[in-house]
Amino acid sequence: MQRPVLELKDVHVRHAIKGQSLLGKETVFALTGASLSVSAGETVGIVGESGCGKSTLAKTIVGLQKPSEGEIFFNGSSLWEMSAANRRTEFGRNVGMIFQDPSTALNRRMPIRRILRDPLDVHGIGDGGSRVQRVRELMELVGLPESAADALPTQLSGGQRQRVAIGRALALGPSLLVADEPTSALDVSVRAQILNLLLRLQKEMNLAMIFISHDIQTVRRMSDRIATMYLGRIVEQVPSALTPEGVAHPYTTALFSATPSILDEINPISLDGPVPSAVRPPSGCPFRTRCWKASSACAEAMPPLRVLSQEPLHTLRCFHPMDSDGATGAPLSS
Ligand SMILES: Nc1ncnc2c1ncn2[C@@H]1O[C@H](COP(=O)(O)OP(=O)(O)OP(=O)(O)O)[C@@H](O)[C@H]1O
């Protein structure tokens, strides 16, 4: 079996509450027990509502956030046991990140050719001539016209700016790409172009990709596997090829029912009540306070990780999965 490019083992991230240190009484449980892996040529999609920990997971994967507990392996080496210099050079060269909003992610005062060249300069790759050549290649790769080279980010459209951000993320030829909501700040009309560009580049470059979105249909289209997050926990990992009826966690089912594609026939499920606080998450399963299938067992303990299928991978943390009674339809009254 292929060794994963990236592997997270039981990773936790706790944030201090604003104005307090981590030693203060209360902390934000931003990520709890996340285990995940992604191999070359594979895309894992992360989906969940706002505040569920998607960005924390992304920052943790690219080394911008140190886990409070757990381990991260990159090509088999522990990220936080590497020297800081190796993390910056060896790891930094091999991982690219695309952020949600290209307007804030790019330096407004730098012309595009400098933005694309910057990673090569910082990592000392090649000489002046080869860097100029690489910038040309990158512009062609992401579909930017030559005339954009001397423009400032503010002179480009939102879609073109995101193309620049993608080019910069790929400048050093990474093996892992993390895209955190890469189209949510863009006009609907250009979203499909950027998604298609990412799909093509991921295939051509055999990248391991983590693709994050709050929209499960976009994640399904972009990924081989969907990891559903709820209140800092990965509650299910399910192959994207499965139909919504094949998913097992009630929360994943609810996400599908909120944004059905024209091919899906699912009854709408409305989730009652707000997402609980990440400072005081509920005991047991975090979803139980909004789950129409919850029982007293769900309050007592976090459901253990169950592997429903190894190849393709389907994992679940739930005491009352959808397939246990064949029901994918309307919620039972609570
Ligand atoms: N630096 C921080 N300090 C304190 N709390 C934080 C910090 N960053 C994130 N959080 C909290 O951690 C939890 C997870 O946040 P995160 O931004 O990872 O979620 P998200 O799913 O990416 O949300 P969104 O889709 O709105 O960006 C939230 O409760 C958030 O308020």
Automatic annotation (TrEMBL):
Q: Which GO terms describe its molecular function?
A: ATP binding; ATP hydrolysis activity
Q: What SMART domains does the record tag this protein with?
A: AAA
PROSITE patterns to which the protein is assigned, alphabetical = ABC_TRANSPORTER_1 (PS00211), ABC_TRANSPORTER_2 (PS50893)
Alphabetic keyword roster: ATP-binding, Nucleotide-binding, Transport
Tell me which residues make up the ABC transporter domain. Answer: 6-256
Claim: Transferase is one of the keywords in the record: no
GO biological process: what's one of them? transmembrane transport
Q: Which InterPro entries match?
A: AAA+_ATPase, ABC_transp_ATP-bind, ABC_transporter-like_ATP-bd, ABC_transporter-like_CS, Oligopep_ABC_C, P-loop_NTPase
Fetch the PANTHER family from UniProt. Answer: D,D-DIPEPTIDE TRANSPORT ATP-BINDING PROTEIN DDPF-RELATED (PTHR43776:SF7), TRANSPORT ATP-BINDING PROTEIN (PTHR43776)
User: Of which family is this protein a member?
Assistant: Belongs to the ABC transporter superfamily.
Q: Spell out the protein name for this chain.
A: Peptide ABC transporter ATP-binding protein
